[in-house]
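Why do we bother with holo predictions? Because pocket geometry can differ from the apo form. Keep that in mind while you read this record for iron/sulfur cluster.
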Amino acid sequence: MKHNTGKYLEKRVLRKAGTAIHDYRMIGHGDRVMAAISGGKDSIVLLKILSELKSSAPIDFEIIPVHVSTGFEKDFDRVRDWIYDHLGLTVEVFDSGIDEILEHSSDPEKSPCALCSRLRRGILYSMAQKEKYTSIALGHHMDDIIETFLLRCFYTGQVGGMAPSRVSNDGKNRIIRPLAYCKAELVDAYFKTFEVDPVANSCPKRVDGKREQVRGYIRLLEKDIPTVKESILSALGNIDMKSLCLKETFSAHPY
Ligand code: SF4
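The structure, written out:
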């Protein structure tokens, strides 16, 4: 099988997603999984993989695709139609009006992305709770996770990332990231085998300079350490707590 065929790439993504789902017990029998669909390639791949797994996995679960429209997306209907025609799923669209909220409430000196993500997250959380969905699946992949880890480390002086599976801060929702073991390049290559263009986003703040910079650092590192991404992801789940610079809350003496 050629390495760039849809079937070969699908097998690879499915294997990695299946392993992540298994390792983090992301999906169980009877689950109602809400899939957040921005219309970008990662979210479309997420939905395709979930629907492939649904038809082949021994467990029965439901997939509910939801699109929270910020007002910046162009031509989402085209993607929605593709999803319906190819995956047989109807995407629920929620018009959030976030573009107008950002226009009136953001400080022009600050990036509106944190507020934008908070608003979108809030909408997804309340929809999931209202409809009793058991989890919210997001399309973040391995590169997103390690970039976030490095960004937090470099710019906020904090060790943290994006967990493949976690309970939300309010304790009421479960977030899952089935593509956590898939590199961006694999997701991109697989997406290219679909006959659909991702939704264009006209947000004027689209370019994230810091994230781009961190991507550049990772690319440089990869030249010397080809498995650097896998190593960082693995390190995030293999923490030697005693060697961190935590201020101890207990006596250091063994007696
Ligand atoms: S780039 Fe625009 S749409 Fe994306 S998170 Fe930032 S404000 Fe929201």
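The chain has a mean pLDDT of 92.
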